Amino acid sequence: MTVTSTASLPASSAAEATPNKLPKRAALVSFVGSMLEYYDFFIYGTAAALIFPKVFFANVDPGTATLLALLSFGIGYIARPVGAVILGHFGDRIGRKTVLLFTLVLMGGSTLAIGLLPDAKSIGNAAPVILTLLRLLQGLSAAGEQSGANSLTLEHSANSNRAFFTSWTLSGTQAGAILATLVFIPVSSLPEDQLLSWGWRIPFLLSFFVLVVAYLVRRTMPETPVFEDIKDKAKVARFPVVALLREYWPDVLRVIVCALIATVSTMTAVFALGYATSKFGVARPTMLWAGVLGNVTALITQPLWALLADRIGRKPVFIGGVLGCAVLLFPYFMLVTSGNTIAIFAVAMILSGVVYAAPNAIWPSFYAEMFEARVRYSGTAIGTQLGFLAAGFTPLVSASLVGEGPNGWVPVAIFVACCCVISAAAAATARETHTVDIADLGKRRA
């Protein structure tokens, strides 16, 4: 009897030969790593909306301070395309696992440093400058996290369930948002003086434990059989970004435009949080709990959307969810500004937890399947991070667009809805890949 090692099989066969082990383990590793890394990333957004205007930008008027704090949030997204080029290069050159370990250390270290940073009263203008630099480091790290985790999980998965297992990377991101918000809820309930002096630092200092847990979980994961296959065959691109832009520029452009759907996420998580609490007197815990409920709902619905995408295709689920978001933005703002707690919880669960969860669950496989393995990390990283620039500055743009009065949110809703429609149009031009073998993904078509 001849025993065949899965290591000697082609990449697609190796993934099929271990359906109950490595795909599940890869999904778990990606889930935990993304959860803990994006815990770090999301606590900055919450702090930028509620805390930083009074702590690091206290030397200007409140309105300007809010805009500067939101600008510092958006600056983290400026670093992400740069990080995508650098980390994408090494992810396609030396492997997915090594780069993913580096992103954890960079994110954890910069977040811990923010928690230890003296405020503007102590060191003056140096405080916001250092804060912004640390936010840039967070952006560099985040640029490589999701794309690397998506590639890792996709390349360990069987052809029949790639969307399902890869969706757990974004479920991890949702869990990170939940964890960040749950930590901030008791902190935000502290008396104002305690909150602004030391309370806000607690979520950032906890990142040390986040870093240790994520590193221990991720370091034992093997490299993907797909990457090992192209490495063994000496097919690793010397300069992956050059090969990507030469051969796959239409797909990179397509991912950039599709990624505009992320404007929905930062609009609800950052802008709407500050808008409802400051302009309409909605209690901070109410908005924070609404975010938690939306993300908890998404943890349930995202795997279900991904299962559907494995059956009927990526495009119908992605496009349907994106257009659904465009429609629901208007009732979302109407109910969030109503002050009715039950209505706020319900609309947050529907928009974030059900409708937005559809494209959020699908894009890890949808984008990654546009590229072949030798440029997959770079392609998804660069495409998404350039697209996410719009999401990063959505809170700032929204704060600039918002008008006076109870319907001041209308320009914001129109802006984000337009981003959704453009995203759906770009997705409609993509190739459907749910029935394509992993070895044939990204192959140029005649």
From TrEMBL:
It comes from the Bacteria. GO terms for molecular function: transmembrane transporter activity. Keywords: Cell membrane, Membrane, Transmembrane, Transmembrane helix, Transport. It is a multi-pass membrane protein. InterPro entries: MFS, MFS_dom, MFS_sugar_transport-like, MFS_trans_sf. The chain crosses the membrane at residues 41-60, 67-87, 99-117, 163-186, 198-217, 252-275, 287-308, 317-336, 342-363, 375-397, 409-428. One of its GO terms (cellular component) is plasma membrane. This is MFS transporter. It comes from Bradyrhizobium stylosanthis. The lineage of its organism: Bacteria, Pseudomonadati, Pseudomonadota, Alphaproteobacteria, Hyphomicrobiales.
